Predict the 3D structure of the following.
Amino acid sequence: MADPVELLRSPKLPTGFRAAGVASGIKSGAKLDLGMLSSDLPTCSAATFTTNRVKASPVRLSMRHLKGGDLRAVVVNSGNANACNGPQGDLDAREMAASAAAAAGLEVRQMFVCSTGIIGVPLPVEKVTAAAPDLARALRPSGLRDFAKAILTSDKVAKIVSARVGVGGKTVTVTGCAKGAGMISPNMATMLAFVTTDAAVPGDELAAATRAAVAGSFNCISVDGDMSTNDTVLVMANGAAGNRPIKPGGAGARAFRSALSRVMLELAQRLVRDGEGASKFVTVRVRGAGSDRDARRVAEAVANSALVKCSWNGSDPNWGRVIHAVGYAGARVEQDKVDILFGDLYGARGGVVADTPIGELKAAVAGRDFTVTVDLNLGGGGHTVYTSDLSEGYVAYNRLEYALKIQGR
Amino acid sequence: MADPVELLRSPKLPTGFRAAGVASGIKSGAKLDLGMLSSDLPTCSAATFTTNRVKASPVRLSMRHLKGGDLRAVVVNSGNANACNGPQGDLDAREMAASAAAAAGLEVRQMFVCSTGIIGVPLPVEKVTAAAPDLARALRPSGLRDFAKAILTSDKVAKIVSARVGVGGKTVTVTGCAKGAGMISPNMATMLAFVTTDAAVPGDELAAATRAAVAGSFNCISVDGDMSTNDTVLVMANGAAGNRPIKPGGAGARAFRSALSRVMLELAQRLVRDGEGASKFVTVRVRGAGSDRDARRVAEAVANSALVKCSWNGSDPNWGRVIHAVGYAGARVEQDKVDILFGDLYGARGGVVADTPIGELKAAVAGRDFTVTVDLNLGGGGHTVYTSDLSEGYVAYNRLEYALKIQGR
């Protein structure tokens, strides 16, 4: 069956959404650092948040506003996470929401708020309130690229994905953008993603579709195994497409979920490709595990091993390091059954070196993209994680941040 | 009370032990790569092994020989882990034990065997068997330094620690040496340690003392969070000091345990200082946790966070990254109670920035050694982990190994 989901070459916002990005001065050098994304119509929304016990002020505020059930817009700043700023941080997050809402003609409770950047530095909220009117005035259907740029931190490129699919007699659009780069780990990261759709989707179905799509995308990536205080995925559906109501389990729901999952997976993979210092995009596929849970443990252990990631950086088909990570993952493993493949070439078979010539193995990991497959040969459990290498560039980038910021240099 | 344990400035083997190290050709360039450590008298021995599900052949053989209860010597090679070499690896480990035992006039079952180095490359056992006679002839009471050098891989320096303590009317000596560098994680790593003592210690007491000492030393260190296939700690006691029998729980047992723990902790800390690419030695101390288990989770999350370790590399007092790792550790955390100190200066107090001037915080992390304290202010649980930073040097060192080795360059 042909894939009913069509990815658009030129991403665009769905009908009834507008976006903007401006330079508020939180970042130096007139860089875009404040964005808004809004719906002209009421929305049904769903979100997932970081599972970090330390949560940024905007995360806690947005959790409450989401529960209110009447979101119309999100305001996002980069350059400052507004995390670990105490009661003042909570006040600042609310002030950010209030000024953005007022500028956009909305109520505070209709505004979702996100921040990303350094932890533990007070948010210069006066820059946000000063820029809010300009931001609201700049909102336009073609404004997504500015919004996507305004939410970036150490990301090198903006990430926007649009898909179309037929749902309930109409073609609906699902469009998302995201930022990532560091602190990327399964179970959410310094990761923000905003997905809009003009599909009409009931609340329960949207929440379930969001959970499923996040589980198969943002929760299957890892750059450095660190999980941030600010991770948020927001999905807003405004119904502007006028499709017939989606019934849970029906064809419309399947089509919508397919598009939502496709958009999120594409965004998640782009986050990994643009990870801090990343020079490789590695798909770690585990199969033959005793359970899916065991497969996930193994995939995450391999994807997060510093030694394994260094070997990828050097284009070294070092299956010994892979199997050592397999061994400590906490999964059921019988070492003389483990196969490890680079691309479709065996590096190890039955826990010992395979007879593939080293030159061929090297060629299999020489490119920017490759797959490492671990087959435990024990059962039917499987899991896939998308990850990157560990480079000197990652270390150099992350050596010095806080003191520079505090000292204003 | 004065510490009854005296660390010796000039480490030496206890009475009745001899050691040697030779160049067998496993490593290129006539580097020492094969060592033996033996007792002239029967020993009582105890050991702990890697918990990695993938275990090297020598680990599995040594587990059996330890159970036999009559160890007299250990033979160790570096440059090759003899891990993941299948049935041939098992045969090679046995051949290594057999040739070393024959050369030393012992039975195979009296020989403990360890290997450390690259995984998945066949052990050139013929080099071991050829060098075994020379190795046995070289055994002497002053041979520990050669042995300690012969077991190194990426370590820069040999690590030997000797302590003396009064036990049962005699002064006994406890002397250990160890190697580490990469794949260092709590719960054992590419880590080998050999401890000898001339104390007479009953088997049960030696096993219990070894478990306790390992728990407080080698299981409290982390370089990169990777756990190897070959980790082994062996303790051999030959009774040559002629002390009165040690009774469990008695003064002699306490004194012996104190010396054994001191030697292992000192060795463990030296492993961290000599970790691959390490430029910092960081003590991560967690207190005020709801339980010791929670404290351990938090200490390990902080010590293993790539982002935190990069900040240490840059001498950046980035408490925001520390608290983000605290938050995802899986422990009970109330973010507005968390204090983070660099040395004795507060970086954060009650989950928000403290008023310590940034210049003072920078000075606190500028040196090679510093302590990061996390106080959760929830209860009486505590744990300490010794760790290092993550440097560009670590990445550069670990980029390329397998292909070079296989291609013989």
Summary: The longest helix of chain A spans residues 251-273. Residues 185-189 of chain A have pLDDT under 50 and may be disordered.
